[in-house]
Structures are given as C-alpha cells and as structure tokens.
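Closing statement on the 6-phosphogluconic acid sub-project.
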Amino acid sequence: MKKMNTTIKIFPTPQALAESLALELVNLINDTNTESLPFTIALSGGNTPKLLFSIIGDQYANFIKWNKVHFFWVDERCVPPDDPESNFGMTQKSLLGKIDITIANIHRIRGENDFMQEAERYTNEMNNFTVKKNGLPFFNIVLLGLGEDGHTASVFPGNEKLFFLDKICTTIVHPITGQKRITITGKVINNASKIIFLVTGRSKARLVKNIIGHGDKKKQFPASYVIPVDGSIFWYLDEESGSLLKQG
Ligand code: 6PG
C-alpha cells in the first residue's frame, strides 16, 4: 500500500493549533509561486474552522496577497448564505468580511438554489476557475473537518462511493437530519496538493486513532478514504483529539 505522505501535528489547545495553522497558511499562500495561476483553497464548514478563520481575518488580513487566492467550498448546506447553518455565511463572518478580496475570487456554493441545478453550476465553476491536474480541478489546499461519524466534507458513512465517482460535485442528503447538501467528491479532494484535517475535541479521539491507525475498521469511516494521489496530508489536532494516538 502506497505510504501516504502524512504529517501529524498535536497542539496543547485549539487556540494554539489555530494560531500555528493560521501562520502556516499565510506563509504557504505567500510563498507559493503560482505565477499568474490562482492559489486555490477549498474550505470546510462546521464549527472547528471558525477559530482559524477568525485568527486569519483578525491578525493576517493585511499579510496575504489576496488577489491571487480563490476560495472554494468543500461542501455546503442547502440553505441561504445568511442562514446560521451556512458554511459560506460562517466564513463570511469570521474571515471574508475582514479582508480585501474581490468577489470574483469567492466561489461559494449557492445553497439557496435548487440543489441539483447548483451541483451542476458549481461543477462548472470549479472547472472554469481552477487549474487542472490529472484531468480534475486542482486545489493547493483542501481544508477538511471530521464528523463524529467519521464523515468528511459531506461524505457520510455508506456514501464512500463518492470517493470513486467521476463526478467532481454531487448532491447528498444528511442521513440523520435529512438536510440537503452539495459536496465535492473524493477524487477532487485526493487530487489536492495539501489536504489538511483540522480536528479538535475528545469526542473525536477514537475516530482519529482509527482513521490514522492501520486497523481494518477504518474503512467504515469516509475520512479514511482521503488518500492524496501525489500530494500530502496533514492532521492538525489538539491534545484531546490526538490523545489516543500517543498510547501507541
Ligand atoms: C460541514 C463540514 C463537515 C464538518 C464536520 C466537522 O458542512 O459540516 O464540511 O464536514 O467539517 O462535520 O464539523 P465540526 O467542525 O462542527 O465538528
């Protein structure tokens, strides 16, 4: 089995993690020579990244050449952008509203649209505004979270097939809440240069151990299907979410 290029970083607290990752992202964006090409980053939503986005927005708004950065989303709930559930809305409040970036560089998934039509539209938007690698949209960074059921993006347990579809974007319904969502698919995630999992909290410690470990149980968790084709994968953890890794 191809040894994945995996880096695990464990920080004392979510705050320390977010501060370190914010600085690393700033340096990565500024140091990556994309020439005239966009620096493409696909963001996840949920709660965990709020702190990271706020730190970047509050402390580094003037330290990044935003004109080269193009923001995309890994997934979105099918709600309007001002809905408390909106991943874009969360990012707008914590980061985008604090930086000088043209709206043309913000490629949100329009949760307010019909979700089948929006999946098509967002597929076209990714194809039109990213460079291609291996025939797929290329992201310099994909930022992922980890749900307590082992999902990532909006690929929930039982939907692992979304890591093998040729489609780059699809619709999905949350298996418990029934919430309609739009998500990019696994091939796009795995095509990225840097895949960063941002995971905090004790409730995710066993998941993290199962997914990063080599047990066969891992395949019940969609996040374990994140296997970069030729990029690298980083796990940014706090002491709590990484607590079982140290037990060997
Ligand atoms: C979403 C996210 C999802 C999230 C995980 C973790 O739309 O909810 O993209 O994949 O990253 O559910 O969410 P928390 O950070 O809230 O635990």
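The chain has six helices and twelve strands. With this model delivered, the sub-project is considered complete and its resources will be redirected to Aim 3.
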